[in-house]
Amino acid sequence: MITITNGKQLRQGKTLQTIQSEVAETNRLALSVDCVIFGFDENKLKVLLIRSDLKKYEGRYSLLGDLVYPAEDLDAAAYRILKQRTGLNDLYLEQVQTFGAVDRHPAGRVVTVAYCSLVNVQHHKLKILENELHWHDVKSAVDFAFDHKEILDACYERLQKRIQEHPLGFNLLPKKFSLRELQNLYEAILDVKMDRRNFRKKFFSMDFLTDTNEMEQDVPHRPGKLYKFNYEKYEKKKKKWFGIDF
Amino acid sequence: MITITNGKQLRQGKTLQTIQSEVAETNRLALSVDCVIFGFDENKLKVLLIRSDLKKYEGRYSLLGDLVYPAEDLDAAAYRILKQRTGLNDLYLEQVQTFGAVDRHPAGRVVTVAYCSLVNVQHHKLKILENELHWHDVKSAVDFAFDHKEILDACYERLQKRIQEHPLGFNLLPKKFSLRELQNLYEAILDVKMDRRNFRKKFFSMDFLTDTNEMEQDVPHRPGKLYKFNYEKYEKKKKKWFGIDF
DNA sequence: GCAAAAGTGTTGGAAATACACCCATGT
DNA sequence: ACATGGGTGTATTTCCAACACTTTTGC
């Protein structure tokens, strides 16, 4: 519902023209999208960052962002930006939160919508390396431009929550992975240690892992089995209901 | 990060002026906030709706919304709109999701940020009733203007999820409430039936309810005890960790 | 006394946790 | 042989679900 409320102005039965002029009057702001792209490598959770374009923030790190075009759907903008900055598409992409503090951008009023995405670092070698695009440890990343630290934190928290309730983790791993890799992923993202045997029992009892009958190669110890995640089985079984718990 | 990416344009070391003009060029859109205000009355989940201002949508229902002012923080806009439309402040207000389809608003490009809020219907009698503001059953509400049904659904789903993990429900009830009222609330919001004894056990074992030593009045049956929610205890004990479960 | 909801305990099964040993491979 | 991590089983506990009867009040 769109209304400019000045005192006692009538609210009923506006024409489209009235509202159009209100929109025109009020649109002194720009909208952008920032993508927080997580990856997993060397047992660490990583995030893709570039160096800020902006002199004011020279040398500081920035998320992958861009303005949304006036005739572009919000989600489409997020996918476009991901593609432009990294050359990647075909990724899970989720809207997380919108940041709209008046002074968050020095160039004027820019409200930004944060999106979050997960990439398999091994399978998606970056082809576009402008602005020093590369992977950074999430835990140790500092020196952000704008409010991008805050945005990253919000996306990281969302990721931690989502990965406990949805099988997102598999997007960060090779198609075939060992249980050790899977556990390392969970331990890294959630920042906890888990019991190896119970972790296995958990995942096997979920019954979403398919044994590929292949083994790890070139590991300096006994090789583990490789598994695939079975999305079809998951789709059929997925849960609707968790109990009340807080 | 703000960049208009036209082919091979240099991305390094932009001046603030460059970006300012990019922002000015691109801001042919407006931003609005829509508030989804849930209440609970007569054992039903309710939502506050008005009749749409817009001729095109005459007679159809609309959420409480307004444009965001250029010099207004996003959250502040949400609180302002809630206040203006209902006379209420002092409410829990949570950003839910941003809706940015190009054609979602007939007056032009209007991206809207949905906020969600919970009101105790009994304690907050509405003083502003412009545009036929009143409570509607969430389940049976139809005939929405814009994409407001979609927005409502998103907020309702978020509410269902949040109420299972956070003690939000108490914002919808009187300060002192019976366990029956609490259970009715959960059953209405989550659309399930629960076992009364297990429900009680659950809440008592959480140990966040304080017995007020008062009883229900004027009920046509045996009166139940009234409880308060103990926020202090909750703040101390709240959980950090749920297991992996999907 | 009767209708309506309050209040209360137990039991069985499922899932989570804690925990220790042998195995396969590379060096 | 040894170091490294793979692979497995069991006992304990905790949590959840299912379930029925007695009590208090208003009418």
Helix content of chain A: 25-40%
Q: Strand count, sense and closure of the main sheet of chain A?
A: 7 strands, mixed
Helix-strand sequence of chain A: HEEEEHEEEHHHEEH
Radius of gyration of CA atoms of chain A, rounded to a whole number: 22 Å
What structural class do you assign from the helix and strand content of chain A?
alpha+beta
Beta-strand proportion of chain A:
15-25%
Query: How many angstroms does the end-to-end distance of chain A come to?
Result: 35 Å
**Average predicted local confidence, pLDDT of chain A:** 89
Q: How many β-strands of chain A, per DSSP?
A: 9
- Low-confidence parts of chain A: 1-12
- What's the multimeric state? homodimer
Spatial shape of chain A: globular
What keywords describe this structure?
6 helices, 246 residues, alpha+beta, two-stranded antiparallel sheet, 24% strand, seven-stranded mixed β-sheet, DNA-binding, globular, homodimer
Give the structure's gist in a few sentences.
The first copy, chain A, has 246 residues and is an alpha+beta fold. In chain A, 29% of the residues lie in helices and 24% in strands. In chain A, the strands form two sheets. In chain A, strands 1, 2, 3, 4, 5, 6 and 7 form a seven-stranded mixed beta sheet that branches. Chain A has a two-stranded antiparallel ribbon with strand order 8-9.
Summarize the structure in words.
2 copies of one chain form a homodimer. Chain A is α+β, with helices and mostly antiparallel strands and 246 residues long. Helices cover 29% and strands 24% of the residues of chain A. Chain A has 6 helices and 9 strands; from the N terminus they run αββββαβββαααββα. Chain A has helices at residues 16-26, 74-86, 148-165, 179-190, 196-206, 231-237, and strands at 30-41, 44-51, 61-62, 64-67, 93-99, 110-119, 134-137, 209-215, 225-229. In chain A, strands 1, 2, 3, 4, 5, 6 and 7 form a 7-stranded mixed beta sheet that branches. Chain A has a two-stranded antiparallel sheet with strand order 8-9. The radius of gyration of chain A is 22 Å and the shape is globular. The interface between A and B is large, with 86 and 85 residues. Chain A binds a DNA duplex (27 and 27 nucleotides) through residues 178-180, 195-198, 200-202, 205, 216, 219-225, 243.
